[in-house]
Amino acid sequence: MEDEIVLTGLNLTFDFVKHITTLDTGLIVILATLLEKVFTKPKWKLLIILCIISLSLSLIGSLIFLSELSRWMMYRSVYIWPESMISGGLWMSIYGFYSALGFFIVFTLKNFLSGEGKK
Predict the structure, then answer these.
(1) How many CA atoms within 13 Å lie on the side-chain side of 93?
(2) Helical packing angle, 45-74 and 83-113, nearest 10°
(3) Mean pLDDT value across residues 22-43
(4) 8 Å CB contact between 60 and 92
(5) Where are the domains of the chain?
(6) What is the mean pLDDT of the chain?
(7) Cβ atoms 64, 89 nearer than 8 A
(8) pLDDT tens per residue, range 73-100
(9) Is the dihedral of CA 79, 81, 83, 86 positive or negative?
(10) Where are the alpha helices (DSSP H) in 36-82?
(11) How close are the terminal C-alpha atoms of the chain, in Å?
């Protein structure tokens, strides 16, 4: 019974990280579209760089987490639980996404409030 609860929790966490990965890639597309179509001369360009770095770190963390957890779930009997890789990838994914989201919101608000968006 306890093993079943652990596997259910891991499956839910796996799905959560898949959703973060989807949101990461969506935010990259939205950022690229805003830069191309709306903000032709953006202010605070450093926030764009920080956002892209954070999204990249989040995607890398997600890939580490998903691959290591998948490997462990497939080969549980012979594969030792790689706790540092799995938890490190999970936290890198979560913190990268939320920091990128923060940078994105600040960048967008700064540029919209300064009247940079195309009229």
Answers:
(1) 27
(2) 150
(3) 90
(4) yes
(5) 2-33+51-113
(6) 87
(7) yes
(8) 777 766 676 677 788 888 999 999 999 9
(9) positive
(10) 45-74
(11) 60
